[in-house]
Amino acid sequence: MSLKTIFEQHPERRYIMFGGKGGLGKTTFSAATAYWLASQGKKVLVFSVDPQASLSDIFQKDIFGKGPVKIMENLWAQEIDADQHIKEYQNEIRQKILDMYGFDEVPEEIEQYIQAASAEPAMEESAIFDAVVDIVVGGNYDYYIYDLVPLGHALYYLSMAKVYDEWINKITKLREEMREYEEMVSRLKREKETEEDQILTELLYIRQRINASSSILTDKEKTSFFFVVIPEEMILLDTQKAAGLFAKFDVPISGYVVNRVVPRELLGQDIPPYLRNRIEMQDKYVKQIDEMLGSQVVSSVPELERDVTGLPMIEKLAGIMFGK
Amino acid sequence: MSPEQADPLKKSIFQNLKEILYGMASHDMSRYAIRTRASMEHLFILITMGDMIGIPILPPYYSLRLLPYVVPQISTWKRRLLREKDVSDAMF
Fold this sequence. Notes:
By secondary structure, chain A is of the alpha/beta class. Chain A has helices at residues 3-9, 26-39, 55-59, 82-101, 108-119, 121-138, 151-188, 198-218, 233-248, 273-293, 311-322; strands at 15-19, 44-48, 69-72, 75-79, 143-147, 223-229, 253-261, 297-302. Chain A has 2 domains: 3-85 and 122-152 and 219-322, 3-Layer(aba) Sandwich (Rossmann fold); 89-119, no CATH class.
């Protein structure tokens, strides 16, 4: 099945993701897919959460932390600044504390905790996925193309979401028990109503956010996940491992895109042994990919004569990926 | 005596009686319930904000959302968890 057919047959799959090891062309394919969909008249947002995001480079426009920026008709691009998102979030918490208790400043130990909390490594993943939920629930676009950070992050987040969910269930239960005691006291004292438990409300909100963000990655109806591979041994081994892990977390894998295939036609020409060796090596792995993945390979993209930056090159690549 | 004058008197007798009954019958129960509620509150803060006293719990992004609500309890919570225990704890 070709990439084009998949998009034509499944218009309901609105969340598109390209995943794979770093540097294989995830961003490039995201941009090209976004370009193709936009030129088909769909309203598309392509976004990235990578702190070293390269959407800015590929579109040759500085969009980092600037919200959705219009690239061309129907096409918007956005790079989320996770640090900035965390800072805003912290300020929101501080402001809430000040407002709730009428303090002039946040008590020292609380402030220390706020700062320490954001130094933890998992903070960034959570912040990133929270920002993604914000974007996706907005629902302003026909397609969301998510230029994923390298695989580890996504897997880490998915496993975290599972643990988080259980954790929230437990503390919600504890909170509900606490509520029973509170009600008992009010009954004994014959007070009318107990105050609404805001923490419980907050917990339910958190659970809903976590579920929303992990379901973006795992929704079989709406999500298409493509792996990017290149014909090299290490990449293939790694991708196999990753695909196994993704399957465990129910990420729906729609196909594989093979990148950087050196054109075989060159063999007929007078080329140096260096290039000939590379082509022969790739030949071996292209065969292996074929045996391993077969019809799951939805597109195969040759090594281009130059890097893909700027709209004309993106257009050219989109033509190769989707057929003109 | 008009009914308007009798009412407050009746009310206060009734009120006193109610309080005496409450004191005899259910004050202890509600005190106990409040204590249990307080222990649970501290347990709750422990499993959400454990990092604060050096117990790593879980990614703190969403814990921060809960922080504003527990600000007033933080210092009593810390005092309770970090104090030394002795025999008298078992008595009261």
